Amino acid sequence: MDSSLTPARIVAALDEYIIGQHEAKRYVAVALRNRWRRLQAPPEQQADITPNNILLIGATGVGKTEIARRLAALADAPFVKVEASKFTEVGYVGRDVESMVRDLAEQSVQLVRQRRQAAVRAQAQEAVESRILDALIPPVKSPAGFRPGATSADAPDADADAEPLDLVPSAPDSDAALNARTRERLRDKLRAGELDHRKIDIAVEQSGPTSIGMMLPPGMDESSMQGLQEMLSGMLPRGNQRTRNVSVAEARKLLLDEEAAKLIDMEEVKEEAIRRAENAGIIFIDEIDKVASSGRASGGSGGRGPDVSREGVQRDLLPIVEGSVVSTKYGPVRTDHILFIAAGAFHVAKPSDLIPELQGRFPIRVELAALSEEDFYQILQKPKAALTRQYEALLAAENVQLDFEEAALRALARVAFQLNAEVENIGARRLQTVMSHLLSDILFAIPDDAPADGRVVVTAALVEERLAGLVQKRDVSEFIL
Length: 481
Prior knowledge:
Elements: H1 7-15, H2 22-40, H3 43-46, E1 54-57, H4 64-75, E2 79-83, H5 99-119, H6 121-136, H7 175-191, E3 199-206, H8 222-233, E4 240-247, H9 248-262, H10 266-280, E5 282-286, H11 306-322, E6 325-328, E7 331-334, E8 339-344, H12 356-360, E9 364-367, H13 373-379, H14 387-396, E10 401-404, H15 406-422, H16 429-445, E11 455-458, H17 460-473
Helix pairs in contact: 1-2, 2-4, 5-10, 6-9, 13-15, 15-16, 15-17
């Protein structure tokens, strides 16, 4: 994490994508900054400084997931989102809670690998060029392989219909010297993109089977599957190569990752990835209210029904959130300093319905406010990923300019707010269904029936015509997700 990423700057960065919810932004900003502060503390104190896990409470679509996702992007930290309702307690078929940590380790390895590969990209590109040149002009092994004064038509593996490569030397020389000069001329053409259309044969690495799910008995959990897959992977053939006939441009893409992977030490990648997962990882547990026992506060369900399973999932979650060691295929991962952000609507259950031990592991509770009509108006225009900008970009691909009048944005915000109030509150997601209905005819007509001036203006009258009648009649079945 960058030391210049102060809480105020974190909030300012979140404001670019998320409207409102200032209290939640402040808490997550402090939690993120505390990750950096802990690493600056004396080593003997770092182990004692535990993260302040956060419980976000609010209806769907108010920004809970987006806050967590953007926070991880700001910190360039490994991030996974899981749904608590997908887990089952130990002994039952389904995902076990430890799989979230394995997913985090996998995500961390991918981040570190991509960063390392980006650092050696220039070297990898040179290696790719050499392999492509070998395919175009194989190295000369004997005088009979390539003669001084030969033309491109005499070159090995030359395409019959390809343009001449201008390989004639200025004076007779040894085959090796001629080959070296030819490769340099060809390298210049390659870098200029003049050979991108030529077809060559390349050998690409083909890994063994990545999934053995068909060989597993039904009901095997993910942990056992991962262990068995690792065991069998050692017995499966590795490094198989397959020859493909592709263009030079396609060969670049196929070979670049392969060559970059050869230049990095995967053991170092794994070690760094584990450290990042342990010290900077963020796990977002959504729908945690779905595993809360709604009758807990009033005495529970007497040990019967789904509440037993829900409480079992909570008790399985507890050691992960509290701090334990989880085995992954990259090595053991300690969860003591992973930041956990849980979220739920809590319409039926209450936060107090969670088991007391789990409640205590989420000391920061933040209630996110429901979106107002003004919030909808701001969401339509201020965020970098605003829906209006997305639709403008879509129509720009058809050379059509899409403009929204301010009055139209106000009308859209009012319609979305009313639909949430009268049907079901799905938060900002309501804007997606409203915008889709509003612009569906326009998107269908273009480009076959594009406006002569190449411009479409969305007015308040158009919004009223397309949407207001539906609100008045409450005929909103198509807006229910």
